[in-house]
């Protein structure tokens, strides 16, 4: 693995392409939910992401229980909550922003499970970000949208839980792990869709689906899942995590831009303020080493 602090121009372009694809993916989900209920859309996504690829990519060399846990939390539960949150009215832009709080849920779970105690910088960063979540909650209109916010927060928590399984799985091929994780999630979500939404909803959705919805499914599966995770896995193998991961902070930026262009989503002051707090907390967390160095310089100057 290269630990270079600089991406090559080609790899920088691939990185920006990936976060752009993931940012626009929230719009694709919004479009897909116009024709499909959330659990059915999840089931379609998982099925197409898994088949026929599971016959091509070998199962990751890890205990089955870890692969099952990865698939349930990183895919079935996370996207079940996320799609439901958007379906209930939380805008794609805000959903992408709120989902970033998974970083802080990951820190909390790492403390509880692995005993990794967060330092004062991480705690302050968390508090800054959750002020932003409070601003979002204070400006949500209607019970459905508030429930959407709660579900996306649960999606972030589920993603963080899935990271615990990811940490325990040493996957040689990240794309293979994604494909097998989708295979785990597929039957779970099919059953959930049949029980909650009913077979009639599925039949009606397939009979009346639009070309826009078909395009959205194509985007979600083959661009966001296969292309996105494939490139991202390559980048994480080529560079250190600290070089690549900060670029995920651009996902909400691209999501807000695409949401404003396609949906005409407005950007009132409170959204900008909430974004600054949430992103500010994340940046504060990522710049931990620089902040400690600054404290050291200030102490030495006294």
Summed up, what is this model?
The protein has 302 residues and is mostly helical. The chain has helices at residues 9-35, 38-50, 64-87, 92-99, 102-114, 120-139, 143-168, 174-196, 199-208, 211-238, 241-244, 250-263, 269-286, 288-301.
Biggest sheet, open or closed, and with what strands and sense? none
Number of strands: 0
Q: Kindly state the mean pLDDT as a whole number?
A: 85
Ranges where pLDDT stays below 50 over 5 or more residues in a row are none
Structural class, from helix and strand content?
mainly alpha
Bin the strand percentage: under 5%
**Element-by-element helix/strand order:** HHHHHHHHHHHHHH
End-to-end span in angstroms? 41 Å
- Which word captures the global form? globular
Number of separate structural domains: 1
The number of helical segments is 14
Rg calc: 19 Å
Helix content: over 70%
What's the arrangement of secondary structure elements?
Layout: H1 9-35, H2 38-50, H3 64-87, H4 92-99, H5 102-114, H6 120-139, H7 143-168, H8 174-196, H9 199-208, H10 211-238, H11 241-244, H12 250-263, H13 269-286, H14 288-301
Description:
It is built from 14 helices and no strands. It has 302 residues and is an all-alpha fold. It has one domain (9-301). α2 (38-50) runs antiparallel to α3 (64-87), α3 (64-87) packs antiparallel against α7 and α4 runs antiparallel to α12. The radius of gyration is 19 Å and the shape is globular.
């Amino acid at each position: 693995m290269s630990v270079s602090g600089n991406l090559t121009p080609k790899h920088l372009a691939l990185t920006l392409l990936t976060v752009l694809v993931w940012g626009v993916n929230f719009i694709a989900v919004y479009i897909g939910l116009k024709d499909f209920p959330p659990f059915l859309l999840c089931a379609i996504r998982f099925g197409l992401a898994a088949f026929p690829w599971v016959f091509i990519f070998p199962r990751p060399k890890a205990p089955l229980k870890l692969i099952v846990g990865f698939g349930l939390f990183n895919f079935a539960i996370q996207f079940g909550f996320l799609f439901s949150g958007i379906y209930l009215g939380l805008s794609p832009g805000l959903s992408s922003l709120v989902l970033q709080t998974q970083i802080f849920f990951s820190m909390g779970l790492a403390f509880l499970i692995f005993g990794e105690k967060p330092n004062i910088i991480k705690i302050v960063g968390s508090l800054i970000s959750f002020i932003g979540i409070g601003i979002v909650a204070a400006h949500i209109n209607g019970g459905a949208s508030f429930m959407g916010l709660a579900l996306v927060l649960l999606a972030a928590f589920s993603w963080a839980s899935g990271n615990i399984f990811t940490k325990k799985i040493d996957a040689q091929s990240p794309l293979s792990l994604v494909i097998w994780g989708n295979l785990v999630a597929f039957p779970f979500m099919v059953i959930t869709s049949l029980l909650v939404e009913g077979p009639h909803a599925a039949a009606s959705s397939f009979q009346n689906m639009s070309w826009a919805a078909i395009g959205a499914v194509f985007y979600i599966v083959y661009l966001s899942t296969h292309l996105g995770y494939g490139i991202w896995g390559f980048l994480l193998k080529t560079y250190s995590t600290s070089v690549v991961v900060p670029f995920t902070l651009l996902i909400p930026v691209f999501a807000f831009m695409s949401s404003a262009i396609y949906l005409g989503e407005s950007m009132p002051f409170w959204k900008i303020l909430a974004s600054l707090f949430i992103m500010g907390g994340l940046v504060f967390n990522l710049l931990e080493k620089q902040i400690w160095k600054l404290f050291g310089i200030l102490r030495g100057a006294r």
